[in-house]
Specification:
107 residues, flat, AzlD domain-containing protein, Brnchd-chn_aa_trnsp_AzlD, transmembrane helix, transmembrane
């Protein structure tokens, strides 16, 4: 790929992404969103976080180092889910996840 082709591709991608981000903000400035839209937008951060966590927890090569090495992060994540369900605290989730992972790695 030549430099000019790369620049055309990069600039067109940049313009498209910029338009996708700026046009909705400009078009909706000063207008209230419906409650259903606000509710739907509230699901985006947890869904994005869940996708990042799932991407780190599940991989095609997770059991290459052995069964326990592949299950250990999943068990630690299960502990975090239980702590989150009981406490609703991000701090306790982080502490429980790190502690569970460390304790499970000692086994």
């Amino acid at each position: 790929m030549s430099t000019s082709q790369f620049l055309v591709l990069w600039l067109s991608s940049f313009a498209f992404i910029l338009a996708c981000r700026v046009v909705p903000v400009v078009a909706l400035r000063g207008r209230p969103l419906s409650p259903r839209v606000v509710e739907a937008l509230g699901y985006i951060p947890p869904a994005a976080f869940a996708a990042l966590v799932a991407n780190d927890l599940l991989s095609p090569t997770m059991f290459d180092a052995g069964l326990w090495a592949g299950l250990m992060p999943l068990v630690a994540a299960g502990v975090v889910v239980l702590v989150a369900w009981r406490t609703h605290s991000m701090l306790w989730c982080c502490v429980a996840g790190v502690a569970a992972y460390v304790l499970l790695s000692l086994v």
